[in-house]
Design a protein that fits this description.
Elements lengths: L12 E4 L1 E6 L5 E6 L2 E4 L2 E7 L3 H8 L2 E6 L5 H7 L2 E2 L12 E2 L3 H5 L3 E2 L8 E2 L4 E12 L5 E13 L20 E3 L2 E3 L16 H4 L6
Parallel strand pairs: 7-8
Antiparallel strand pairs: 1-13, 2-3, 2-6, 4-5, 5-12, 6-11, 9-10, 11-12, 13-14
Bound molecules: flavin mononucleotide (FMN).
Length: 209
């Protein structure tokens, strides 16, 4: 395989979209789409622009919810895309507009969480309640890195293997942000040796038979 050297302006190689609900100074909820998130055990590490309202909220008030929309929710996510909860809009966000009512602007529904003050997004099949255990600047001072400790997980029963604690990967499908384009997942290709929900008849590697 021959490769060319390129200088892409973004490196979003395809990660799930999450909607972060955080608490504004006046107690109202902010809601922001993001995709720079990954899980380490029960901690989700979040990468946030330092000038956004979400980063400002988490530096002062640790309660948050991390909500995972499915592929059908991409228009609601994109309605949030040009909005910020920061007033005035920072100079670094020239194409953004201030919006204090993000849930209404997106057409999404806030519902009370059980352990934290920030609401969950009712339409999202997976909702994590969490607390920001650490909030720090990145080495370049441009971003904020948040370690969000997950306190409780809520799942639509349709994506849970009945009678277990497992999410069924054949029923749950995240919304993927792939170089600023939205995708769902394709068919299952296989599973990790550590999977607790294997579908051996579908995903065993082919032996060429
Ligand atoms: C699909 C999608 C993914 C995004 N991923 C991130 C991200 O990982 N980190 C981030 O800081 N901003 C990300 N953004 C941009 C934020 O949503 C944007 O900066 C927004 O203004 C933040 O809102 P806030 O200022 O109210 O916090 C993403 C936007 C979209 C639409």
């Amino acid at each position: 395989m021959e490769h060319v050297t390129i200088a892409p302006s973004i490196l979003y190689v395809g990660t799930p979209v999450a909607l972060l609900a955080t608490e504004n100074p006046d107690g109202s909820a902010n809601l922001a789409p993001m995709s720079s998130a990954w899980a380490l055990g029960q901690v989700v590490v979040l990468g946030l622009g330092a000038e956004g309202q979400t980063a400002a909220n988490l530096a002062e008030r640790p309660d948050l919810t991390i909500n995972f929309p499915g592929p059908d929710h991409w228009p609601a996510v994109e309605r949030l895309a040009p909005l910020t909860g920061r007033d005035p809009v920072p100079a670094s966000k020239p194409r953004f507009q201030y919006e204090p009512e993000k849930f209404a602007a997106a057409g999404l529904t806030p519902a009370p969480a059980e352990l934290v003050g920030s609401p969950v997004v009712a339409e999202c099949p997976l909702q994590l309640e969490a607390t920001a255990a650490a909030v720090r600047r990145d080495a370049g001072e441009e971003f904020v890195i948040v370690e969000a400790r997950v306190l409780r997980v809520h799942a639509d029963p349709d994506v849970v293997v009945p009678g277990t604690q497992h999410v069924d990967p054949t029923r749950w499908s995240p919304l993927i942000y792939n170089f600023r384009h939205y995708f769902g997942l394709g068919e299952e290709l296989g599973h990790s040796f550590r999977s607790e929900t294997p579908r051996v008849w579908r995903s065993a590697p082919s032996k060429g038979l």
